[in-house]
Amino acid sequence: MLGCDSLLEIDGEAHGKPHTPDRATRAWRSMRGRTGVLHTGHHLVVSGPPLAGDGRPRRRPRSGVSSTGVRFADVTDAEIAAYVATGEPLQVAGAFTIDGLGGAFVERIDGDHHGVLGLSLPLLRHLLADLGIPYPALWT
């Protein structure tokens, strides 16, 4: 099992999912023209064969974080209002997506673009390798 969640950090302040249009608007007004770091945490639990005499599956957890710099465009109030009105930024960390309508408002990323999408494939590969599972094993 793999669980992932993200938050956007700007100047040491965490920005999660805004849930409301007012909070999304405030978030965009505070981050436009600025750079933040999107942290995406991963927790992987792999069940193995039972321990001798126990009968319960052995669980081997691994965790990690992908952190990627995100530079936001200096968007206008009208652009913010139009974007928030779509509803897209309400249920996503930092009130933005890079693979949706908000992608045009992201000018640059520095780091793992997969982490910005919500699942860092390079980090997943490392977590699996730490458990002795080769990444290509997922392909079959």
From TrEMBL:
<feature type="region of interest" description="Disordered">
    <location>
        <begin position="46"/>
        <end position="68"/>
    </location>
</feature>
<protein>
    <recommendedName>
        <fullName>Maf-like protein</fullName>
    </recommendedName>
</protein>
<dbReference type="Pfam" id="PF02545">
    <property type="entry name" value="Maf"/>
</dbReference>
<dbReference type="InterPro" id="IPR029001">
    <property type="entry name" value="ITPase-like_fam"/>
</dbReference>
<dbReference type="GO" id="GO:0047429">
    <property type="term" value="F:nucleoside triphosphate diphosphatase activity"/>
</dbReference>
<dbReference type="InterPro" id="IPR003697">
    <property type="entry name" value="Maf-like"/>
</dbReference>
<keyword id="KW-0378">Hydrolase</keyword>
